[in-house]
Amino acid sequence: xxxxxxxPDKGVFTPGRPPQIPEPVMRLNxxxxxxxxxxxxAEDPEWSLAIIPLLKDLCLQHIVKNFENNPIxxxxxxxxxxxxxxxxxxxxxxxxxxxxxxxxxxxxxCCTERWGVCDVACYxxxxxxxxxxxxxxxxxxxxIPEVTDxxxxxxxxxxxxxxxxxxxxxxxxxPVKEPQMNEDDNASDTASDPGHEGPSIDHFxxxxxxxxxxxxxxxxxxxxxxxxxMNFEWNLFEFTSRDCQSLxxxxxxCKTLKVFRIHQSKVxxxxxxxLINSLLDHPFLTVLDLSHNLIGDRGAxxxxxxxxxRKMKSITVYDNxxxxxxxxxxxxALTKNITLTSLNLRLNQIGDEGGQAIAHALLKNATLTNIxxxxxxxxxxxxxxxxxxxxxxxxxxxxxxSCNRLGLDGGKQIQEGMSYNTTVVEFDVRxxxxxxxxxxxxxxxxxxxxxxxxxxxxxxSGVKK
Length: 465
Hints:
Helix content is 38%, strand content 6%. By secondary structure, it is of the alpha/beta class. It is elongated and about 100 Å long. The N and C termini lie far apart (106 Å).
């Protein structure tokens, strides 16, 4: 028998012969033979079949987890940076994220998680600007003098000053008053008496803030408490003399301001004169809104001075106490001004004497495009002068005389003037008693003017292209 070399289970090899491969051996299924089943027990109880993450992903997870203590962002590749920003928490301290993260997607998440529905178009389409403006507004609106530490405001200024362009403060809280016991239980509540002067209370001091906001362009203020409900007291809506002095000082230091609004704050003649005096040397101020206040003729004269000395574009003083003399001061300023485009005097008491003065000024003014004199006790004499304005003035586009008693004769005067006009496209004469015939004729002329303006706009846009 020839010598055999090899393992009989794996094959046979005989010298001088080719190797012989044995026939396949049928293997038993382990499931059919419990004695041959095998079990694998992992030493790690958390072991699973999940794919092991890549090392770069582990590194990015570590960066996200420790971002507050060790913020690493600008050193990363763009793709890695995007992944980190996507996973970062919106609850991180602002001292870490404010001047480091500029990605709009992150600030979008911060805004929507904090306020829900957000209109970024009101903030120059910048989510970061929206976040910091609303964040600072809320801090100021909840600031209680002599209770809240001023550091809560000043600490956030270095973080937001480069992004805040507008502040819309809807309320300013007064100091907390200690309850006082009346000797007579039946005594009247003098704090709720509108004729009672009340204590001299102060609100948030803007002098500590405005000079530090180097990009602030708009400031809207209301010295009052929103949603006070059953706790209403007149002294919650008190713009004190000390408040006014502090605000005037702050406005004078804010040289970047373009728009200033203070309404529903009981601003009277003395206070508005002080505020306007601080605005006279502002290089960029163009819009002033003093609506829903207590401004009379002396305050109106100060406003006229501002129109004369500054390149204002819009003045709004509706719902005040301006009468004929105040309107005459504003009218005189209109004859000199060459920049103002909008004037709103609605809900005052200028009467025909003031209305005629404004109308005569419009015969000389060549820049005003919008004027609102609704609810001003105007009658036919004002309508007569305005009919001349409609014939001669070529810049007015929108006129509002609603809620005045112009009468049928006044309506005919307006109708006659409009028959020569080709530029006015909106003219509100509701509730003026001018009659249906005049209303219909004026509306037909307006439609023709609107069609001409539309065609002119199409022509000009085509030429520009």
